[in-house]
């Protein structure tokens, strides 16, 4: 956030094609900045020719297609040493630059965590200047590896806040987007300002990093002093009456009742700590620090120094090996790497450690291999179900081959084999569908939203209703059980880590596992209905399947009849009507519909709103929005 907007472009000049209105300003400034030793990206050169008008790429990714996300901030290359920097346009006589220069003049204080000023470039005959700063990245991504990394970041931010307050400066906008870390050590190949999860903007979704604890010390900084205030008379008598759009829930904010803004800084940093603690379950012991910093009574909040001491007291009670132990974001899916051994963001075989794709040489067909015990119950159940292939209701994945494994001197090899199945595309864990019709170009096993694994975020498919029938299958029989005496007398005692909410599961009290299957598929139905508002009519089927009383749950046959009964009550036009996931943005819907949407074929990713650009897809011209 800042206290100004960059100077408006002369309305008499025509807008440049392919650029957004706020980008014209940087194009106008490019020759001057170049004369001062700073080179902007090709997109912002006055003679820029979009690369897609010269040569089209099959994947549709162009670095100069990435627009600037920040109206008054842009990256540049300093020609004197080739280093990447950030340029920010500020008012030459504004309070932001005065506060910033004051803090930068106190660089001798080791607690100073404000980002250094590398250069100030005054524009001739203008009220505006550019501040050059080191190129940094958001402080919370790549994700934290361990508690030590969190402690290091929070220690530096609390020390930096103590420093600013000791010098009578209020930041007043401490939000995650205004907290950064040096990039060079953690992401040695750098990143793109417009896509900080890629190194160059192309290919996207590809980032190589190192854990912070392995390259420490890592420097953290405060940025953006557009709302900062300086109180020469000291922080005890400071007062202001104003609200903050980005922090509406801070209790004392008011346009009429004055309050001390130094307490607001404490609250804001406390909110950031809360967010991190919410993201990582292992950070729970540090919650009391965040709670004290976000107390409703401003006077009961600790100073930055006291909060730092509190943080260190808690850390001192945690064993050193625990502080260095790997931690994970709550929402992380283990299938994504980059979180381990400095790997990029690709699939590491952590979950599917016994499964891999392969090509069958005899016919060039893509298959899936799974390693199983030769005499284990999984292969026995699988073979038994596969022997019943004549039953049209059999939706278990076909078994193509069983390959005994040769011994390699490992005891685990002596009783192992490989089972071969068709290559499928998973829609939910343990469920999948044949990919040949829906994704005719196939997918990569490690990145099922790309055809070849590179480039990523590129995906072409057909709607299932346009290529039906599509075959759906059950996979993974590692927990499957066979009851020769029938399902009515079947009993089992075990819990399931991934289905802790199923009421009857117990390690001591026997229950009928067939009812558990009904409940599990009901949970999957609930997930889909939660994702698509148009599926709400089918909620009663899912609710009956997830009844608390196992004996009141319908059999699969009854549930199917119920599903078809509800479908019969819906008009055919309604059943064929386009539906959207609840989190689909309006812009995505417009893009889909303009391309023929999901009713025909489309590719991933969506193009951003912008100027028209012709691309070729499946022999058809598609306009880039």
Sum up the structure in keywords.
625 residues; alpha+beta; 25% helix; 19% strand; globular
General description of the model:
This protein has 625 residues and is an alpha+beta fold. Helices cover 25% and strands 19% of the residues. The protein has 16 helices and 25 strands. The strands form nine sheets. A five-stranded antiparallel beta sheet has the order 1-2-3-5-4, with helices on both faces. A four-stranded antiparallel beta sheet has the order 13-14-16-15, covered by helices on one side. The protein has a three-stranded antiparallel beta sheet with strand order 6-8-9. Strand 24 and strand 25 (620-624) form a beta hairpin. Helix 4 (147-166) runs antiparallel to helix 5 (261-279) and helix 4 (147-166) runs antiparallel to helix 7 (304-316). Keywords: Kinase, Transferase. One of its GO terms (molecular function) is protein serine/threonine kinase activity.
